[in-house]
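Pasting as-is:
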Amino acid sequence: MLTQRLYSRGLANYRAWQSLRKFAASANNANDNDVDERHPLKGIRILDLTRIIAGPYCTMVLGDLGAEVIKVERPHFGDESRKWGPPFLEQSKDSTYYLASNRNKQSVCIDLKRGTDMLHDLARISDVFVENYVPGTLDRYGLGYEQLKEINPKLVYCTLSGYGSTGPYAKRPGYDVIASSMGGLLHITGQPDGPPSKVGVAVTDIATGLYAHGAILAALYQRERTQRGQKIDVDLLSTCCSLLINVGSNYLNAGTEAKRWGTQHSSIVPYQSFKTRDGYLTLGAGSDAQFVELCRRLGIEQVSSDPKFRTNRDRVTNRKELVKLLEDILSGDTSKNWMNQFEGASFPVGPVNNIREVFEDEHIQAINLVKSLRHDQDGAVKVVGPPVVYSEARNDARTAPPTLGEHTDKVLSQLLGYDPQKIQHLRDQGIIQ
């Protein structure tokens, strides 16, 4: 009897899934926001319940590759990062912070507590579900993995959290700076005689988003063979530990505790930023041959043959003396003049740019990295486009980050078949915006 009930329920879910799939597919053919067959993820639909950085960054990268991303937000509040400013856009009042991780998405406002049926319907016709709530939260709303797996067995369900779904910290909320603190990144960042320092952007959040995007692609690929979805757990603390790379390996295999080096390298000298007359310049000599060339270009050929500096091991041993010598020389001219003098060098060298200089750099402009996207309320917004270029595939910024609830009516009508009266009724009840 139980088997028969389960079979009947599964058959009903399957028929509902098939019906919604066909309806949504016909709607997609009408308007796909310029996505074509060259986009690797054309036809993949992502139901995105993430906020802030890690999750939205993940789904943005997938959206760049052509996935349809439906960003589900809380009515009248939305993604918290919309309020993280100033600066804010003049008309929509969204923060420019929010713009950085939310292009190529549709914003739909649905109350999680009272709109569960709608979210179930969307999950039925989605390929991927991404969320970054504290583990266990969505189970209370009928949106946990085991619950959605019954509705759509092929769904790839990705959870991003602070500490994963198991372990003593599992129920703690996740924040980039806390994970970076606990994961040792702050301990190894900053000047040797200074306090721990935070990296200038939320690098642990971003790396977590990138890990998640790769994991989702792998799960979609595996689904082609198994015809089954699966749950993916990605967390900030584990990501931060993975970012320790050689520093972590040094401790695990040699018991070597790390310390802060500023811009210096623990095992290569010279390899750091030096003050110039008008700014800073970063250079390195990763081999003895590169050090010989550096000394020749600086007019101090005799230094490269000095027994104290002949090999990298010698230079590491006599770091302070060599660094002081180079500091005295490099501070005597401008960064631009030094770059002209080092043109064509085999050793790595580059100026420390401020943000204006970054985007005015001739190379950044030549490769057209910055994109301007039409915005319904603010005319146009600028974003840094995808850093990956394919010879065959498309990977692009197509649509501006959406305003709050911009696509609610479109998604409910075109994907779920709701008529205007039903949509207005839901809006009057405050379930949608």
